[in-house]
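=== RUN LOG ===
request id: a7f3
mode: sequence -> structure
chains: 1
length: 113
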Amino acid sequence: MQFVNIHGQPIAAGSLGGGHVAAKKSKATPDSYHKGWKVVGFSPEQLAEARAKYVSTDGKPFDEVTFMRTNKPVRASKKPYVIHDAAELFKAMLERQGWKVVQVVPIAKGKAE
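=== RESULT ===
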């Protein structure tokens, strides 16, 4: 029996890799893993500071929606929450204090935050 490649040229039987190749054991490390939850949003102080720095050449008022769309929200606390319900309670507390667009975001090692 003779094998040929896609161009019709004969291939030597030794180059087909007929020998036994032992499978390598792969280490079972995931690409990423869960490290907790963080709460992010726009604080009233952040919005007040942006409003104070805003200078309009057209006479237009400061637009919070545009500011929130073009800027990154800040993290509300440095320490991550292990329990999702605790992060949700903290989110509700921040919303009562006047924070805007508050979100609970998962933290995973190995992924971009």
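=== NOTES ===
The mean pLDDT is 83.
The CA atoms of residues 41 and 101 lie 5 Å apart.
=== END ===
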